[in-house]
Amino acid sequence: MMTKFIKQHLWIGVLALLLVMAFHPQPAMAQAPDVTFELCATTGSTTLPDATTLPVWGYTLGACAGNPTVTQSGGPVLTVTQGDVVQVTLNNRLPAATGIFFHGQALPLDRTGAPSNSSVTYTFTAGEPGIFLYEAGLLPGSLYQTAMGLHGALIVRPATPNQAYNNASTGYNVEAVLVLSEIDPALNTSATPASFNMSNFATRYELINGVAYPATTPITVTAGDRVLLRYINAGALHHSMGLLGLTQQVIATDGNLRSNNASTVSNAYTVIAETVAPGTTLDAIATVPASAPAGARFAVHAGSLLLHNNRAAGYGGMMTFVEIPTVGPGGGNDATGPTAANLALTANGGDIIVSAQISDVDSGASNISAAEFVIDDTMAAPTAMAADDSAFDTPAEAVNGTIPAATLRRLAPGNHSVYVRGQDSAGNWGAYNLVLLSADNAGRPLRR
């Protein structure tokens, strides 16, 4: 028979056990993820608009089946909803260990990552709405990996669709994610990138979403649209991002809304250009005028004005356009004109040959039908250019035209802009690109 003493001690033991459990809770059962992603960190190569091809690293969606490669730096946009339990599995096919660091998310810092040909899984609950950078993890000696291309965008959406945040005034019609980065060919072509001294990193190409102008994708809008521009700086430099012809209302930085008001962004401010520091994000809204005509274009560009590709002639680098498309006379689905790239000036006796590559491959795939150039004034009468193969019959054509010696002699001394554009068979004219021509006091061309 159990004595009173034993019963008292038994209850004391039970109470002690309950207290221990209360102050030392048992591990909770892991919650099943609401959203899962498989990323493959892999190698590849990219071809820049000046025809330079460089090795790059990046992420593809999937578990690396078939050993995929990338054609540009960067990774996919990962989109989740506020409150989601998110699981991301990183599969590593790189020659070095790598991990992922998710800015703005609460999860332990990974200093180990996944060795080559292995994987690691990250799980976190998506906190506040916003846009955030994900990039190569903070492993020892891995500083170079983000610059090689291991970066991307994570969007955490609020429950209300077509809002950037839990605030009615952050509504938008068009969303554009612009991941900013740079390339130093010395790093990308290094036989041992891990030994590259990042203090010597020297930018030669500046990119939006892994490509440089004129290969960047325009932001297509209609008159009256509110355009949400979501800048993410995955690069090593500060970039002041401007929008010519429109103003930008800055509503958030690093996923932090500039307001405590549920209906207005009380601390938003208006700019033409704003600086985005490395590793940070910035959300801005621009409103396209209701009166803007078809064909209107507004340049989004780095305010440094170093808009070139490794000092090659013509516009390049960190630039794209907010544009209202026009439907060409031929109708159909092709509403965008071809690009003009690889502009060059070559002396030929006393003349100058203007050459370029006109391509509609990524903007409708219609055949090229014409090309032309003007000097200094885009409203001046153009000079027609010919196809190098004598026929405009493909979506990509090498073209040429001549600036006669007599025209050169009439030019004032100094620099002159030679503008080149092309037309596709749907009737769409593309944007002008330009190359600079220098002339001496006699109008003779100088070497560029």
Oligomer state of the chains in this structure: single chain
Q: What best-fitting shape do the alpha-carbon axes yield?
A: globular
Described by strand count, sense and barrel closure, the largest sheet is: 7 strands, mixed
The helicity comes to under 10%
Helices, by number, come to 4
CATH class category name of the largest domain: Mainly Beta
CATH superfamily of the largest domain: Cupredoxins -  blue copper proteins
- Low-pLDDT runs of 5+ residues are 1-29
Structural class, please? mainly beta
Return the CATH architecture of the largest domain.
Sandwich
Average pLDDT reading: 88
Question: How many extended strands?
Answer: 29
Q: Report the C-alpha radius of gyration, rounded.
A: 28 Å
Distance between termini? Answer: 107 Å
CATH topology of the largest domain: Immunoglobulin-like
Number of domain modules: 3
% residues in beta strands: 35-45%
